[in-house]
Write a structure and sequence with these properties.
The chain is mainly α. 52% of the residues lie in helices and 7% in strands. The chain contains six helices and four strands. A hairpin with a 2-residue loop joins strand 2 and strand 3. Helix 1 packs across helix 4, helix 3 crosses helix 5 and helix 4 crosses helix 5. The protein is globular, with a radius of gyration of 20 Å.
Length: 163
């Protein structure tokens, strides 16, 4: 094969791989930011294993709240939640403070993505746009979520829930 064709073939292969590399780099950066944010904000309660501290802090490992609706999970982080809650048949009664004033949409999406890919969870990545939309949608809500409210919210979009 002539050298000019090899050069063109090499250039095409390189260009074809670039979007994948950029996507992988972005995903890796989001996971790194998510892990860093988790270690700084979430670790004390949910622990390095994601198993929490019964009966005070519930697990996020293999959690339907983590693996389910991305909007619901985002709003839990934004607004917090208040017990009592029953998780895996065990009672938990504490308050998770909302992080809407502390964390950006990018950091919340990153920590969600990290948690949804860790601790035995298997859910897709979350974009900052999902968090931004949830933040705007529930901007007027002041109270943390209760388990009763969260449990009626199985899939996106959110059902009509009192503010």
């Amino acid at each position: 094969m002539p050298m000019d064709r090899l050069f063109i073939l090499g250039a095409v292969i390189t260009l074809a791989a670039m979007p994948v590399a950029r996507t992988q780099d972005a995903a890796s950066e989001q996971m790194t930011l998510g892990k860093t944010t988790y270690m700084m904000v979430c670790l004390a309660c949910h622990q390095p294993t994601g198993l929490g501290l019964p009966p005070v802090f519930p697990p996020i490992a293999k959690s339907p709240y983590v693996n389910g609706s991305a909007e619901r999970f985002a709003t839990m982080i934004l607004k917090g939640n208040a017990g009592p809650m029953i998780i895996d048949g065990k009672p938990y009664n504490n308050i998770m403070p909302g992080q809407e004033a502390m964390l950006t949409d990018e950091k919340i999406a990153a920590v969600m993505t990290y948690v949804r890919a860790s601790f035995g969870n298997n859910a897709p990545a979350v974009s900052p746009e999902v968090v931004k939309a949830a933040r705007a949608k529930f901007a007027d809500r002041k109270a943390p979520w209760t388990q009763a409210e969260l449990d009626v919210w199985k899939d996106d979009p959110a059902p009509a829930i009192a503010k």
